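Per your request, structure below.
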């Protein structure tokens, strides 16, 4: 019988809910707005009800959730996350107890890493690092099949490595860190000089779309971002010595121009010992979260442990 698990990806705006099959295929996908700041009662009730319908209709082996922020030590709740304050402290394991299924809560930087490790192009890679580039910047790391966790279920806030001393400030208060330069606020800052001819401020998504159409102004921006990404990789790589680096998240949708520039800058800056790794783009797009959340319940070896 094909294994089936529920994967839930709690984002700051939407929560995605999927039934994922043994090979990582999505059988069913739906989403609901996340109660990030308002009273979460109705949201949680809605979520539980939808899970109940999926459990009734399928042979589910477990429920996995990817959650943002720092997780509690017992891995039942979000301990800290300024983007979803309404969900801090909610015991998700307790909430889903009623289904009599194993429940697993994972930090959201790690779920794409788990998805790539189990189902990606480089599945089973010995030292697999995913860089999630979107509103923020961060990384997850799977070494010999285990998610590395030594700070709030993360490998630390690698997005806040300083790349440009005294550069722009990020929301965490660092000056010129990777997140301030490479994530969407950094792209929008660079896009501002192209906004003068437009009636609105250019958003990062517009830049990414323009890159896909080959527009030069947007390619210039992504070259700059890719250069910083290469510098960031040159700083991260000697610590983790990844065998594979997979670029994920909305900004990685810029594709090859971003990947190529990051790779060439990384190779310019780092010594040969640190540039042995493959740098690739994720193929999962916005589905990595639900696939990675469900993954542990789709692996027979893991289930037997
Ligand atoms: Zn920062």
């Amino acid at each position: 019988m094909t294994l089936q698990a529920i994967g839930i990806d709690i984002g700051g705006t939407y929560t995605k809910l999927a039934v994922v099959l043994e090979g990582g295929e999505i059988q069913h996908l739906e989403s609901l707005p996340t109660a990030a700041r308002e009273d979460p009662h109705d949201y949680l009730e809605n979520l539980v009800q939808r899970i109940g319908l999926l459990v009734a209709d399928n042979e589910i082996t477990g429920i996995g959730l990817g959650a943002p922020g720092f997780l509690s030590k017992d891995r039942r709740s979000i301990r800290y996350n300024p983007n979803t304050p309404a969900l801090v402290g909610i015991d998700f394991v307790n909430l889903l107890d009623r289904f009599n299924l194993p429940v697993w809560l994972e930090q959201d930087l790690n779920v794409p890493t788990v998805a790539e490790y189990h189902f990606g192009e480089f599945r089973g890679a010995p030292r697999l690092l995913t860089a999630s580039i979107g509103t923020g910047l961060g990384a997850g790391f799977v070494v010999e099949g285990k998610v590395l966790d030594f700070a709030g279920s993360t490998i630390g806030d690698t997005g806040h490595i300083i790349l440009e001393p005294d550069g722009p400030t990020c929301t965490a208060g660092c000056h010129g860190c990777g997140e301030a330069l490479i994530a969407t606020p950094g792209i929008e800052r660079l896009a501002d000089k192209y906004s003068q001819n437009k009636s609105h401020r250019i958003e990062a998504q517009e830049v990414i779309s323009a890159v896909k159409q080959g527009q030069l102004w947007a390619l210039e921006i992504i070259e700059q971002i890719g250069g910083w990404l290469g510098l960031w990789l040159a700083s991260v790589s000697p610590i983790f010595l990844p065998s594979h680096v997979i670029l994920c998240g909305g900004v990685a949708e810029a594709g090859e121009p971003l990947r190529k520039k990051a790779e060439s800058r990384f190779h310019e800056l780092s010594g040969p010992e640190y540039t042995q790794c493959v740098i690739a783009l994720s193929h999962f797009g916005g589905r990595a979260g639900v696939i990675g959340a469900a993954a542990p319940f789709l692996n027979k070896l893991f289930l037997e442990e």
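The chain has two domains: 4-113+287-304, 124-283.

Regards,
D.
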